[in-house]
Specification:
The protein has 6 helices and no strands. It is mostly helical. The longest helix has 40 residues. It starts with a helix and ends in a 16-residue tail after the last helix.
Length: 172
């Protein structure tokens, strides 16, 4: 593995570990808060919300990234490109690479450089927006969930036996 791939794999593993822990805890919170006879429905609702939220997040952030890429590339691509070539370059980074292959070497190199810079800008903007949304969600979760009672560990085993009578918050 070269340096770039190693960083990608390590980052993906760290992200998966973090997301897995959060999803497990969130699902436990949802299922534990529902009456035993509705635990299946609560779990299904939690799973649907997770999938929908992930898909919506990717769609919105992906659209932002593409918009930034196209706007920046439009401003920085070499002048004098044929309209079809410029459109292909604005569509995707792969389109820019394919269009650059058909251009004179210097013009193609400038197009690739502009497309790479535009792509990186799109990723940076998308990452910053994602980080800001995550920070707001963390603050909201901390504020809104601080009064949720904690289940005492001995009583967790009783969750499958029905609602717990008089569950007291865990000592702090």
């Amino acid at each position: 593995m070269d340096g770039g791939l190693a960083i990608l794999v390590i980052g993906s593993l760290a992200m998966a570990a973090g997301v897995g822990a959060v999803v497990a805890l969130a699902t436990d919170l949802v299922v534990a808060s529902a009456p035993a006879e509705r635990a299946g429905s609560a779990s299904a609702l939690s799973e649907t919300g997770t999938e929908f939220g992930g898909a919506l997040g990717m769609a919105v952030l992906g659209s932002v990234g593409v918009a930034v890429y196209r706007a920046e590339l439009t401003d920085t691509m070499p002048a004098g490109l044929a309209p079809d070539t410029a459109d292909a370059a604005r569509d995707t980074l792969g389109g820019a690479a394919a269009a650059a292959a058909d251009l004179p070497q210097e013009t193609g190199a400038r197009l690739i450089e502009a497309a790479n810079a535009a792509y990186v800008s799109g990723v940076h903007v998308t990452a910053m927006i994602g980080a800001a949304v995550l920070l707001v969600a963390a603050i909201l979760a901390a504020r809104l969930l601080r009064h949720v009672p904690r289940i005492i560990p001995e009583r967790v085993t009783r969750l499958n036996q029905g609602p717990l009578p008089n569950v007291a918050p865990a000592p702090r």
